[in-house]
Amino acid sequence: xxxxxxxxxxxxxxxxxxxxxxxxxxxxxxxxxxxxxxxxxxxxxxxxxxxxxxxxxxxxxxxxxxxxxxxxxxx
Length: 75
Known about the structure:
Layout: E1 6-12, E2 15-20, E3 25-30, H1 38-58, E4 63-67
Parallel strand pairs: 1-4
Antiparallel strand pairs: 1-2, 2-3
């Protein structure tokens, strides 16, 4: 991610959108996961924490919004 020149990572359930410094969408990740499966949710949460840790280690102006686990995605 450090090579992507990203400004913002929007984590919204299974949809992760990465924006550049002009707030144009650079990448979109659409995870097809079953949020009712606890093991899957744990793995996705681990991935999210690793990505956030990496973002924070960049020491730039990259920010993120975290809405991974939401009742909307748990049906």
